[in-house]
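Let's practice the habit of predicting before peeking. Look at the sequence and jot down your guess about where helices and strands might fall. Then scroll down.
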Amino acid sequence: MTSLVPLQVGDVIQVEEPGCCYGVGSVTLRVTEVHGLVYLDDGPWVMVDGVPLWSNGFEGEVRYAQVRLEVIRHLPHWPSSRNAS
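Done guessing? Here is the structure:
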């Protein structure tokens, strides 16, 4: 099932609010797991786990996201992490 998804672990993606289920605002994620596709009335959605990334380089806790396949934007050159640990 995941072979049909154009995402893999390690990809950094950005999704604007209308393309992310259960979220507010845009989200940038480093994908940690791809669960697969689910087909809803408005098209295919990808189920993933990922680490939220902020523009200042900090990372959040791993979260589940369901994102609309057609609006995923890959970010190939994201800055390295600066965790606040």
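How did you do? Confidence is low (pLDDT under 50) at residues 80-85.
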